[in-house]
Design a protein that fits this description.
24% of the residues are buried. The protein is an alpha/beta fold.
Length: 196
């Protein structure tokens, strides 16, 4: 998008942040997280906005999460690093910059509001015409109650290779015992995923 359009996006985000107690802004890249947090902090206040992404030190991410939960931040601009398993307290609004690329990711992100009995509120900001079409289709699917199709790959040898490397890097293994471990996982995995 042009610089002029980005300025409109930053201005609209700043308006939304001002209208809500806490706002989560999800982006798809670390670069966008840093850039949008910087532009928003210029509009809202440096102490009220920060970024959160996987390249940040664990302590900095935890500090950002705590500040949001304690009401010290008005907005947190995050990648998927904030998506799962983190208690962030009540969130009034979730904004998604660019398509989240899946219905489940969008619902997970917007559903991060933890207010009992509250209705999650989200806004999508497409970044291109293709994004606009994808976001419109996503919203249509959400309204109809559809979810992404789950595709479980058969014989994911890349995952097996990663697990073998992880196991032998962590400790010494007898080859036969390691082989038995993975044979057992292969027998259990299809049942655990509901595949017969």
């Amino acid at each position: 998008m042009s610089g002029e359009v980005w300025t409109l996006v930053y201005d609209r985000l700043a308006e939304l942040v001002a209208e809500h107690r806490t706002t989560l802004i999800f982006v798809n890249t670390r670069r966008h997280a840093e850039r949008i947090a910087r532009h928003l902090s210029e509009r809202v206040g440096e102490e009220l906005v920060t970024a959160h992404h996987g390249s940040m030190a664990k302590e900095l991410r935890f500090d950002a999460e705590s500040r949001l939960k304690n009401g010290q931040l008005k907005a947190l601009v995050a990648t998927a690093s904030l998506e799962l398993g983190i208690d962030i307290g009540d969130v009034d609004l979730v904004c998604q910059i660019g398509s989240p690329r899946s219905i489940a990711a969008f619902l997970q992100r917007v559903g991060l509001r933890h207010s009992v009995g509250g209705t999650p509120k989200g806004r999508l900001f497409p970044l291109s015409r293709d994004d606009l079409v994808e976001c419109a289709a996503l919203l249509d699917a959400v309204r109809r109650g559809e979810l992404d199709r789950l595709r479980i790959p058969e014989k994911p040898l890349d995952v097996l290779a990663q697990q073998i490397v992880a196991e032998v890097a962590a400790r010494e293994w007898d080859e036969e015992k390691l082989f038995d471990l993975f044979k057992g996982a292969f027998r259990i995995a299809p049942r655990a995923c509901g595949v017969r």
